[in-house]
Amino acid sequence: MLDMMKMMGKVKEMQEKMKAAQATLAQIEVEGESGAGLVKATVNGQKKVLKVIIDDSLVNTADKEIVQDLIVAAINKALDEADVISKEHLQKHTEGIMPNIPGFDLGNMFNG
User: Fold this and answer.
1) Whole-angstrom distance, CA of residue 30 vs CA of residue 102
2) Coiled-coil segments, which residues (predicted)?
3) In DSSP terms, which residues pair with 54 in a beta bridge?
C-alpha cells in the first residue's frame, strides 16, 4: 500500500510539473523563414502562429501564389521547430519523475 501511495504522489508531482511546463510554452517563440528570409512566421511553444512577415518586395498581385506557398513553408518550418523545442522542454521538466519507457511520449499526452 505504501508503494501505491508513493506512486500516486509521483503522478501528482508529474502533473504539477507538466502544468507548469505547459504554461511556460506560451512564452517560447520560434521563427521559421522561407524564400531566403522574404517570408517569416513566428509561433509559440503551444503551436500557435503569432505573426507572419512578408517582405515589401513580394507585395504584388502577380506574386500571390508564390507568396502563399512561401507562407505555408515558413509556418511549417516554425511549427516543426516548435515541436522539437516543446518536446525537449517537457522532457527537461519531467526528468526524474517518470521512468524512460520506450515509446511513451509525454509530449503527445498534452497536445490537443
Assistant:
1) 28
2) 4-31
3) 39
d(CA 98, CA 1) in angstroms, rounded, equals 20
**Residue-by-residue pLDDT tens, the chain, 112 positions:** 568 778 888 888 888 888 888 888 889 999 999 999 999 999 988 888 888 898 888 888 788 888 888 988 999 899 899 989 988 888 888 777 656 555 555 555 544 4
Cβ-based neighbours of 41, under 8 Å, separated by 6 or more:
31, 32, 33, 49, 51, 52, 53, 71, 74, 75, 77, 78
- Domains of the chain in sequence order: 28-96 (3.30.1310.10)
Cell of 50: 503569432
